[in-house]
Amino acid sequence: AQRVTQPEKLLSVFKGAPVELKCNYSYSGSPELFWYVQYSRQRLQLLLRHISRESIKGFTADLNKGETSFHLKKPFAQEEDSAMYYCALGDTDKLIFGTGTRLQVFP
Amino acid sequence: SAVISQKPSRDICQRGTSLTIQCQVDSQVTMMFWYRQQPGQSLTLIATANQGSEATYESGFVIDKFPISRPNLTFSTLTVSNMSPEDSSIYLCSVWDGFNYGYTFGSGTRLTVV
Predict the structure, then answer these.
(1) Min distance B31 CA to chain A CA atoms (Å)
(2) Contact status of B92 with chain A (Cβ, < 8 Å)
(3) Alpha carbon distance B21, B33 (integer Å)
(4) Do A97 and B33 touch (CB under 8 A)?
(5) Is residue B98 less than 8 Å (CB to CB) from chain A?
(6) Hey, are the CB atoms on A43 and B96 less than 8 Å from each other?
(7) pLDDT digits over B86-112, tens only?
(8) What is the spatial distance between Cα A12 and Cα A71, in angstroms, rounded to a whole number?
(9) Cβ contacts (< 8 Å) between B48 and chain A: which residues?
(10) Element (H or E) spanning B96, and its range?
């Protein structure tokens, strides 16, 4: 069955530290993966998708089909990165979301 | 990117009543999606709404409980019927906004059933 797993509910780091938010997926076809972010009191918004191969706000994510992972990384966390992060899998015109990881960046 | 307006932003309702949530998009879109986010949980797709056809519901969701209308390419409504406290959730509208923006979401409706 299609599934997205984010093992960490909460990740706390200090400003300037590296960040890795984990995401693993289960999908029988060729996956399309997304990272969405929700800042406090704001709506859910797209951070990046694996097809784009972009770096947004310093974040990158590489699709590893062998490990079925799509971890989100940033080398130096900033306080403004504090938010809720959701990994999502595109499945025939719909999204399957992971449970989310709350990132707290302390000064 | 598309701009989605969702109303109401929040409501407190009595059990047994119904609430209709509106979703307005500033551009024409083929598919609109309704999600539910229960407290402390992730987003779950309720149904996909295409203009001119019946909505397609995901497993665990039925039309009698969550009737959906899609009268045109910019508007949809979701009704939560015969509410119980278990329906207390955030309900979100979403559209496919093209390759550059992916799926765009409304700001959500926070529903509390008492």
Answers:
(1) 9
(2) yes
(3) 13
(4) no
(5) no
(6) no
(7) 999 999 999 988 877 789 999 999 999
(8) 16
(9) 93-94
(10) strand B89-96
